[in-house]
Amino acid sequence: MQLAPMRFTRIEGTTVSVSVTSAEEAKAALKELRHKKRELKFLRGALLKQKRAMRPRRAARKAKPKSGFGVFLDDMRWGLSAMVEQATGSSPPARRRTPAEIDREIKRTDEVLHNIEGCILQLEGKLLTRG
Q1: Which of 27, 46, 88, 122 has CA atoms 20 to 30 A from the CA of 69?
Q2: Residues 106, 47 contacting (CB under 8 angstroms)
Q3: Beta bridge mates, 15
Q4: Where are the domains of the chain?
Q5: What average pLDDT does the segment 92-98 reach?
Q6: Which residues face 17 on adjacent strands?
Q7: CB environment 27-63: b (16+ within 10 A), e (fewer)
Q8: Are the C-beta atoms of residues 31 and 9 closer than 8 Å to each other?
Q9: What pLDDT is recorded for position 131?
Q10: 55 three-class SS
Q11: Alpha helices in the chain (DSSP H)
């Protein structure tokens, strides 16, 4: 996922730093930080959704045995999908992330969000005292 570019804020690893020289720049940096926070919350939600999708589901009821006609239709669908897949030349699917990798990414995102909130509080405090 491509995140928006930033003018006043720099994120290196989980460290967030802001460099401003005026009150106007501080206001723009606040807006930038809030936008970045919203982006990261969206990314975190997507990661949680991926993790939730990896959980095993409850076993479904056993399907009724198919009739001869049902088996015939399944075979036809399989044959058509094999021909279409061969004609399109689809590439093999990308490697799926493991739950541990997703957990690490969520933890890293949480840490960045926490640091962004700290920067927002510092900037707001400076604006209140000086502006």
Answers
A1: 88
A2: yes
A3: 12
A4: 1-52+104-131
A5: 77
A6: 10
A7: eebbebbeebbeebeebbeebeebbeeeeeeeeeeee
A8: no
A9: 65
A10: coil
A11: 23-54, 68-88, 99-130
